[in-house]
Write a structure and sequence with these properties.
Elements: E1 4-7, H1 13-24, H2 30-39, E2 48-52, E3 58-70, E4 76-87, H3 96-111, E5 115-119, E6 132-133, E7 136-143, E8 156-160, H4 162-165, H5 169-177, H6 188-194, E9 210-215, E10 221-230, E11 233-234, E12 237-238, E13 240-249, H7 252-263, E14 268-276, H8 289-292, E15 297-300, E16 302-306, H9 309-315, E17 322-329, E18 337-344, E19 347-352, E20 359-362, H10 363-369, H11 376-381, E21 385-387, H12 392-400
Length: 412
């Protein structure tokens, strides 16, 4: 008999975690992580799936939770955040991932979650389920000897213990995230782990977490920073490396002040920052970004697919007023069809229609467009969008593209 796809019982969580460890090549006890997931993260077993074979072995895993996803224009929708998707190497090519993921997506749709999001461990897998890459991440490496900034901010940076940041960071982050498409909300246990107040089983760094905040001249905190430093020397020259864990700012001066702080810490020759936005102003703040930023990398991060196409497209705002008819094909037959969008900066509607299509595209391409990142012309050149009416591609470009690049800074 094929493995059964079902929710796990509380006493199966350790085995469930052990399966994820085998697939992701994790070398630590499963029991400690299972206890942490249950006691600290309060992992919802009503959304924790397993593929269980005839010998009652957990051969596949999937967990999801409801996340608030920021959209263009400062609006949000509730998304099905999918994670911990695994299949044991002994059970590959049996359709277990497909069965688990489709079960989760259909259940999420029934709950009223308008879209689903995930971070793909392997790129080729999720397009066939209608997911498209919707945000990118950048990793910046700054050579501090060449990092001369063009100006100084109006304000100051203050060092403080991470425990004090617990009362500050969530407020700053929430103020920032609603204005940046792709950001998701964070639970209070997430903050406790992120700030090192509760030790997670997967925490591996030997270097203590440091924290700082930026305040304007009136004393209002406008940004925060967490980082670690790996101190080292070479022939009596300092070669320390500072790793930015998170830098979040709600004003340009806070952004500048916190980056300057990192690049001017004594005995540090290199600053790295991962999971950053691809359109950071950092290079424009430097006199010589070619020398200071010689190695910037970027890659996909958040993938998205609508579960309710009309609700997803109506929830966001659009750069200019317009009307567009999309013909959307869905490989899972969940929410495809023909839809008319009428919207602009102040609001939008979307409904099913039998009007002639302006553009036709697959669900994965639509998932990539929801947050306003990629160019429609680029997707059309790649064969992912077909123009059905002359001029519709340009009209769609004006409608969908958003002035700021989407960015998700929360790994899940």
């Amino acid at each position: 008999m094929p493995p059964e796809i079902r929710l796990i019982a509380p006493d199966e969580l350790v085995d469930w975690v052990e399966t994820t460890h085998i697939v992701f090549h994790v070398d630590r006890p499963a029991a400690a992580e299972a206890a942490f997931r249950a006691d600290v993260f309060a992992q919802d077993l009503g959304r924790t799936l397993a593929a269980v074979d005839d010998e009652q072995r957990i051969a596949g895993t999937l967990w999801s939770y409801a996340a608030e996803l920021a959209l263009p224009g400062g609006t949000c929708l509730t998304a099905d955040a999918v994670t911990s998707i695994t299949v044991l190497p002994t059970h590959r090519r049996r359709g277990l991932l497909t069965r688990m993921l489709e079960a989760d997506l259909r259940t999420a749709r029934e709950r009223g979650e308008a879209a689903s999001i995930l971070i793909a461990a392997e790129y080729p897998i999720y397009g066939r389920f209608g997911f498209g890459p919707a945000t990118e991440q950048a990793t910046y490496t700054v050579q501090t000897a060449a990092a001369e900034f063009r100006r100084a901010p109006a304000g100051r940076v203050d060092f403080l213990p991470p425990a004090q940041l617990r009362e500050i960071a969530p407020r700053i982050f929430d103020q920032f995230r609603t204005g940046r498409p792709g950001q998701i909300d964070r639970s209070l246990p997430w903050w406790d782990v992120r700030l090192g107040l509760k030790a997670a089983p997967w925490a591996t760094s030997d270097h203590p977490l440091r924290a700082a905040v930026f305040s304007d001249p009136a004393g209002t905190i406008q940004g925060y920073l967490t980082y670690r430093v790996d101190g080292s020397w070479d022939r009596r020259l300092p070669t320390g490396k500072l790793e930015i864990v998170e830098l979040m700012a709600v004003t340009p001066d806070a952004y500048l002040g916190l980056w300057r702080y990192c690049c001017e810490v004594d005995l540090v020759s290199q600053v790295t920052a991962g999971m950053r936005c691809v359109d950071e102003p950092l290079p424009w703040l430097l006199h010589n970004p070619r020398a200071a930023l010689p190695n910037t990398q970027r890659a996909d991060l958040l993938w998205l697919r609508p579960l309710d196409t009309a609700a997803t497209l109506a929830a966001r705002r659009y750069a200019t007023p317009g009307r567009l008819v999309l013909d959307v094909s869905d490989p899972l037959n969940l929410c495809g069809g023909r839809f008319v969008i009428e919207g602009g900066p102040d609001g939008a509607t979307c409904r099913a229609t039998d009007a002639s299509a302006d553009l036709s595209l697959g669900m994965a391409a639509l998932g990539s467009l929801v947050l306003g990142g990629p160019s429609l012309q680029m997707l059309a050149d790649a064969g992912a969008i077909d123009e059905q009416r002359p001029g519709a591609l340009a009209a769609g470009e004006r409608l969908f593209r958003w002035p700021v690049a989407p960015w998700c800074s929360t790994f899940f």
